[in-house]
């Protein structure tokens, strides 16, 4: 029994568990903020919306999937939803009918700007709890961790 408790504790303190918990909490708080602001977008959809928003020209669903490192089917479902909500526009590629070109609508641009303001305010609220040195250290460690994770073979 002691061995099981030790393993359980190690899992609770694992990188995967801690980062997963932080991510879940961030999404929960962002979803609450989006709802309170009347923005009908889920936090999980924000990366897709932002990839399209920041892209200078039209982008394909496959390009979005590649940038976000997500499966194309999941991206397609979110793009369809965001299109139905009027935030994204889907057009067939003239040169390759198998491809859909995705662009952001005027409503989508407006929502993206509101989301950016919310995200920046949320970031600032969290960072208020850290000294300037702690903030630099935290962001440096996270950046370094990204690079390390890319190199690690599991």
UniProtKB/TrEMBL annotation:
PANTHER family: HTH-TYPE TRANSCRIPTIONAL REPRESSOR YETL, TRANSCRIPTIONAL REGULATOR, MARR FAMILY. InterPro entries: HTH_MarR-typ (IPR000835), MarR/SlyA-like (IPR039422), WH-like_DNA-bd_sf (IPR036388), WH_DNA-bd_sf (IPR036390). This is MarR family transcriptional regulator. SUPFAM superfamilies: Winged helix' DNA-binding domain. SMART domains: HTH_MARR. GO terms for biological process: response to stress. One of its GO terms (molecular function) is DNA-binding transcription factor activity. Residues 12-147 form the HTH marR-type domain.
């Amino acid at each position: 029994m002691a061995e099981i408790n030790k393993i359980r504790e190690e899992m609770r303190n694992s990188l995967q568990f801690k980062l997963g918990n932080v991510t879940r909490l961030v999404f929960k708080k962002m979803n609450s903020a989006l709802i309170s602001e009347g923005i009908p977008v889920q936090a999980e959809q924000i990366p897709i919306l932002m990839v399209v928003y920041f892209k200078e020209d039209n982008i394909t669903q496959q390009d979005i999937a590649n940038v976000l490192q997500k499966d194309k089917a999941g991206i397609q479902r979110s793009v369809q939803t965001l299109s139905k909500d009027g935030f994204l526009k889907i057009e067939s590629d003239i040169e390759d009918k198998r491809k859909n070109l995705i662009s952001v609508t005027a409503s989508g641009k407006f929502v993206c700007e509101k989301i950016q303001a919310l995200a920046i305010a949320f970031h600032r609220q969290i960072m208020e709890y850290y000294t300037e040195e702690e903030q630099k250290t935290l962001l440096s460690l996270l950046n370094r961790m990204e690079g390390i994770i890319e190199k690690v073979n599991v």
